[in-house]
Amino acid sequence: MESLVQVFTVGFLATFQPFTFLLLVLGVFWGMIFGAIPGLTAAMGVALAIPFTFFMSAVDGLTLLTGIWIGGVSGGLISACLLNMPGTPSSITSCFDGYPMSRKGKSGQALGIALTSSAIGGLLGVLVLITLAPFVARQALKFGPFEYFSLGVLAFVAVSSMLGGSIWRNLAGLAMGLAISSIGADPISGIPRLCFGISELQGGIALLPLLVGLFCVSEIIEDIGAEMEAIVPPEARRVKLRELLPPFEVFKSNFANLIRSFVIGLTIGIFPGIGGATSNVIAYGMAKSSSKHPEKFGTGIPDGIIASETANNASIGGAFIPLVALGIPGDAVTAILLGGFMIHGINPGPLLFRYSADLVYAVFSAQFWANVVMFVMGLFLIKLFIYSLSFPKKFLLPIIAVSCILGAFALNNRVFDIWVLVFFGIFGYAWNKMGFSLVPVLVAFVLGPVVEANLRQGLTESAGSFLPIFTRPISLGLLIAAAALFLLGRYLQRIMKRRRVSGI
Length: 504
Hints:
Blueprint: H1 2-15, H2 18-36, H3 42-53, H4 58-83, H5 94-103, H6 107-140, H7 145-162, H8 167-181, E1 184-185, E2 192-193, H9 207-224, H10 248-253, H11 255-270, H12 276-290, H13 302-326, H14 332-343, H15 352-355, H16 357-380, H17 382-388, H18 393-412, H19 415-433, H20 439-461, H21 468-471, H22 473-501
Antiparallel strand pairs: 1-2
Helix pairs in contact: 1-16, 2-3, 2-4, 2-16, 3-4, 3-9, 3-14, 3-18, 4-5, 4-6, 4-13, 4-14, 4-16, 5-6, 5-13, 6-11, 6-13, 6-16, 7-8, 7-20, 7-22, 8-20, 9-18, 9-19, 11-12, 11-13, 12-13, 14-20, 18-19
């Protein structure tokens, strides 16, 4: 309750500074544009904005990034409902009923239900985040070096087993990320590692050009050959405000569906490595299997839209809990946000609530109001977002590319960082083409130095003994949790595979 009061006083006061609130609105708008245009994901929007936050205060920069994330996840519903193309992975199942409803001439109703569900899921997720995150952080204050090492192992296991796809490919991504994080001078001895005689590498790989390269430049390369031929339904351009406000009876009859989908989204968001892309699929499947008329799913009914959009926005609040309380990024966007924290000299984790509590409450407040702004903006600017689906990529992609280059160079005024940007852009594109995920690479790059430093510190304290890793209760508990997450990840993947085979 205390944290809730702090958010509604300290946090709101910080968010409602004129410039900060303007950044929040611009962030949500930016995110919804990126989410609405297929191929321009929320992760790409957040990564592209990182360089702009470098010269802002921590509150302003993180407010902007938070707004982009929420706007990006929510913006995916627009192209899902109108083009049958999810603007983001989190809107996959929004296509199943949103598009058929739109083709029936009910584009306004489809968009309205999706927007309202997103706002409800997001706002409820923030309230749970505000309540749980301080508690998790207080428990984490008991951690020592070995506990932090085991926590890193937990994060690595969660990402490798619960992200989806082959566990061996995910482990390869973790190994690659750890190798990249090892480039530079050894933190204790100062001896250069993996520098290959290149003096610029002795300081290590800068986080910002790596982030932007992996998630922006690689996406630009991918999108160059992508042709968008889908046409927005003509009636969608004539949507009126009153059509976007769904009747109360729609949500009253779907109350159980909404609550169930919220719980699914929040829970899955908490687990590192899963995220909204999985939560909306599971929520949709549960809504269908629990429905009295499952045969109507896929024909354009509100039930499917509510399940999908409530779950994917609720997962944002869930994903914030391990990020701010433990410093563990759960997906691409939270890994990028972790980089945003670190650029401002802030390390998310249990001490964040002790030394930077005001910042945490400001970020929570920004997330709350970003959901409100997203809903209002969706209502009044929906036509603008609809027309953005036809924005030519031949103009958009060069602008994004120039912004990436300028951001990388502005970090240290080094041309070398531009080459790093280009290298990891090509690397990210090739890595994706080979069927690997970039998330394990980024998670390992960010957490690798933390895990290494704590392991070496712990071994120094224990005179080289690894035994405390297994004898300290919290450390052992984290390792057991890692094993449980591994088994749970395998189980969830089998369930999803069966659902895909049965056509969910």
